UniProtKB/TrEMBL annotation:
<dbReference type="InterPro" id="IPR001328">
    <property type="entry name" value="Pept_tRNA_hydro"/>
</dbReference>
<feature type="site" description="Stabilizes the basic form of H active site to accept a proton">
    <location>
        <position position="98"/>
    </location>
</feature>
<comment type="subunit">
    <text>Monomer.</text>
</comment>
<feature type="site" description="Discriminates between blocked and unblocked aminoacyl-tRNA">
    <location>
        <position position="14"/>
    </location>
</feature>
<keyword id="KW-0694">RNA-binding</keyword>
<dbReference type="GO" id="GO:0004045">
    <property type="term" value="F:peptidyl-tRNA hydrolase activity"/>
</dbReference>
<dbReference type="InterPro" id="IPR036416">
    <property type="entry name" value="Pept_tRNA_hydro_sf"/>
</dbReference>
<feature type="binding site">
    <location>
        <position position="119"/>
    </location>
    <ligand>
        <name>tRNA</name>
    </ligand>
</feature>
<dbReference type="GO" id="GO:0006515">
    <property type="term" value="P:protein quality control for misfolded or incompletely synthesized proteins"/>
</dbReference>
<feature type="binding site">
    <location>
        <position position="73"/>
    </location>
    <ligand>
        <name>tRNA</name>
    </ligand>
</feature>
<dbReference type="GO" id="GO:0072344">
    <property type="term" value="P:rescue of stalled ribosome"/>
</dbReference>
<protein>
    <recommendedName>
        <fullName>Peptidyl-tRNA hydrolase</fullName>
        <ecNumber>3.1.1.29</ecNumber>
    </recommendedName>
</protein>
<keyword id="KW-0378">Hydrolase</keyword>
<keyword id="KW-0820">tRNA-binding</keyword>
<feature type="binding site">
    <location>
        <position position="19"/>
    </location>
    <ligand>
        <name>tRNA</name>
    </ligand>
</feature>
<feature type="binding site">
    <location>
        <position position="71"/>
    </location>
    <ligand>
        <name>tRNA</name>
    </ligand>
</feature>
<comment type="function">
    <text>Hydrolyzes ribosome-free peptidyl-tRNAs (with 1 or more amino acids incorporated), which drop off the ribosome during protein synthesis, or as a result of ribosome stalling.</text>
</comment>
Amino acid sequence: MTDESPWLIAGLGNPGPGYAGNRHNVGHMVAAELASRVGGAFRSHKANAMVVEGRAVPGGPKLIVATPNTFMNVSGTPVASLLRFFKLAPERLIVIHDDLDLPFDTVRLKHGGGHGGQNGLRDIIRAVGTPEFTRVRVGIGRPPGRQAPADYVLSDFSSVERRTLPNVIADAADAVEHITARGLLDAQQRFHTPRE
């Protein structure tokens, strides 16, 4: 596995228009932004995923941007199948997902570790056989009052949040590009620093 190897970028969410605006689907939203940057259209792949391939920057690494066609909780099989198809090791995988434990408008990057109760991550760790891949965690905040987390993640972003959401999605897409071009540590130093 060389530094010229492509990166598999998996944006998690649920399929279908009924879920498209949900907080749980922010991974899909970031994947769509990355697809527009690589200048391609998603195509159906036999791994049960939608895939687009290209380079976000000229001379940069090849990105394989994917959204599983499955529901979030069973994302693992398509992701593992794509790794096998493209002959990539898990260290060339970046998973983009929503995170209840981070405030809205926060992007955090990490490699390895547990799933933190995120069922999409849990299933990917199971299917891939290791937690040793990179995660781009997009904060959605905690549910207000007594709202159940399961209901909260399947609700749409609020009108106030939607005003900021394009910036959050752009930040997460920038973070993915930065990881693939300059490495995780460099990306963490940039994206974990509070904005001035």
